[in-house]
Design a protein that fits this description.
There is one protein chain. The protein is of the alpha/beta class and 357 residues long. It has a single domain, classed as 3-Layer(aba) Sandwich (Rossmann fold). 36% of the residues lie in helices and 14% in strands. It contains 15 helices and eight strands. Strands 1-2-4-3-5-6-7-8 form an eight-stranded mixed β-sheet, sandwiched between helices. α4 packs across α5 (144-153) and α6 (177-184) runs antiparallel to α14. The radius of gyration is 20 Å and the shape is globular. Residues 63-188 form the Serine aminopeptidase S33 domain. InterPro entries: AB_hydrolase_fold, Hydrolase_4. Keywords: Signal.
């Protein structure tokens, strides 16, 4: 199927103007914030001159017992609050630090962003905010690759990590072909084609998202989401009026340059050839000085369960939690946020933990 698609794609490129596909990239914005509305968010200045915007909530940092950095997912921002009860936050003394990843919200783009650079941003954020020698980390969905990066490059800074329905890469070197193919085939044809381009022809990806010859990824544009999303996720999307519900505002993002340094850059990075293979990582905490938890859901159609199960099988030091219902956004319902936090900080709440072999 992909061979046939590639042939059609090349015809479209050569017939429709390859120059536009390759050159029509967004201009990098490094030395200043996005032009437009005034910036009111607190922010730090990174070593390379970029600004990283952040938000603190929960117990004041100076009084907190636990400090948790939250890495947001795809098409999200620092303004998305982790779904935990106020009572639990006060009881345990938790300060959350959320930030806009590069290119999102009020943070500057990073045109040379990689999986590795994500951990460098987080390390510098924690240092400048004086979170202490160690902090906890939650990486949600697309923010999962940032969490994997931290496990690889800055484990000495981590007190514990949650990989919450983390993004997967179908091209991880040691991921078995049968597992990868099984998961990949569950994607819609539009997602398959778009992700294939992001991995194999990243220099054409921005142009791909602007072309009109083929339908592009519903995961990026929001167009066609109801046909490619499980019922529990659709209910949450409708309840929260999420930006992935296919509204006109999201449709316009396909021609908005700022989107290419957030959404499209995310897709290119997560499906790139990583600097390391997460399935080959050694235990970063051999003395049990910290714990790593991977939470997945059987109904998740975005980050498929078979790959998450394989990760748990290959990395026995990861504590695997599999929930039976709720889809990709299961943690927004039924008190799951509290359970996830308790498991991370207190070690209890070990519910529905299964490892499939």
């Amino acid at each position: 199927m992909l061979t046939h698609f590639l042939a059609l794609f090349l015809v479209a490129v050569t017939g429709g103007g390859a120059h536009n596909f390759i050159i029509n990239q967004p201009p990098p914005l490094i030395d200043s914030f996005h032009v437009g509305s005034p910036i009111t968010s607190p922010h730090i200045r990174l070593r390379d001159g970029r600004h990283l915007a952040y938000r603190e909530y929960g117990v004041p940092k100076e009084k907190a017992k636990y400090k948790i950095v939250v890495v947001h997912g795809f098409d999200s921002s620092k303004n998305e609050t982790f779904p935990v009860s106020k009572d639990l936050v006060q009881e345990l003394g938790i300060c959350f630090v959320a930030f806009d990843r590069a290119g999102y919200g009020d943070s500057n783009p990073h045109p040379t962003r990689t999986v590795m650079s994500e951990s460098m941003d987080i390390d510098e954020l924690a240092y400048q905010l004086k979170l202490g020698p160690k902090f906890y980390l939650i990486g949600t969905s697309m923010g999962g690759y940032s969490a994997y990066s931290c496990l690889k490059y800055i484990p000495q800074r981590l007190s514990g990590v949650v990989l919450l329905v983390p993004a997967v890469n179908y091209w991880w070197p040691s991921l078995p072909a049968d597992v990868s193919e099984s998961a990949f085939k569950k994607l819609s044809i539009m997602n398959q084609q778009s992700f294939w381009v992001a991995h194999n022809l990243p220099f054409l990806f921005c142009g791909w998202m602007k072309q009109n010859f083929f339908k592009t990824s519903p995961a990026i544009t929001g167009i066609g989401v109801p046909e490619t999303t499980c019922k529990p996720d659709l209910e949450i999307i409708n309840q929260n009026q999420s930006p992935v519900n296919g509204t006109d505002a999201v449709e316009s993002k396909s021609t908005n340059d700022a989107v290419y340094e957030s959404l499209c850059r995310d897709v290119m990075v997560v499906f790139s050839n990583w600097e390391f293979d997460p399935l080959q990582m050694e235990n970063p905490f051999p003395n049990d000085e910290a714990s790593v938890h991977l939470w997945s859901n059987v109904q998740d159609e975005m980050c498929q369960i078979e790959i998450q199960r394989h990760v748990a099988k290959k990395l026995p030091w990861v504590r695997y939690h599999e929930t039976p219902y709720g889809g990709h956004n299961f943690f927004n319902n039924d008190g799951w946020g509290d359970k996830i936090i308790k498991t991370l900080l207190l070690g209890d709440g070990e519910v529905n933990t299964q490892v499939h072999t």
